[in-house]
Amino acid sequence: xxxxxxxxxxxxxxxxxxxxxxxxxxxxxxxxxxxxxxxxxxxxxxxxxxxxxxxxxxxxxxxxxxxxxxxxxxxxxxxxxxxxxxxxxxxxxxxxxxxxxxxxxxxxxx
Amino acid sequence: xxxxxxxxxxxxxxxxxxxxxxxxxxxxxxxxxxxxxxxxxxxxxxxxxxxxxxxxxxxxxxxxxxxxxxxxxxxxxxxxxxxxxxxxxxxxxxxxxxxxxxxxxxxxxxxxx
Lengths: 110, 113
Prior knowledge:
Chain A is an all-beta fold. Chain A has no helices and nine strands.
């Protein structure tokens, strides 16, 4: 079973920031937080990951709380093409099995 | 272009007729994995491979076989498909040092009648 908790759905207006929360209160000290998204039955797409510092790449930013029990994925300027299911996953780098939960369905409105 | 290629994309078959879904990656990745996705159950790992000739079971291996004879290929074999294997299948690959950053194929939608 997935060890993370995410809201089932969220809405966002096009052009606005989308902030997707994730709770991972049982995360171990050496486990990372990974974010993926899946656009309508396509293959999941890696977005970003982090351990304890905030991270940013060309797709998104990841904010991890100091106690590492939760994180927020930020899409700074959401577009209609960002409508997807977003998955927050915790895991150690030596593993490889991604345990996908139900994720958050993000709908970006015009 | 770096990619994971699955074939076929769509397949309808009948119970008991052996089939193979191919998966190939061009990124020289050591780690490869198969998942199935079913409504309400999310993605579940079927089998994975750490490298050539090294494979192991995931969470739902029953009814499936895999092989890893070459680094780039990781076929999924259904020796005797049954209707409960009707599903959306994804192959993924990653570098051995970053196993959780996986690149997924476009998926194979399988229907077993």
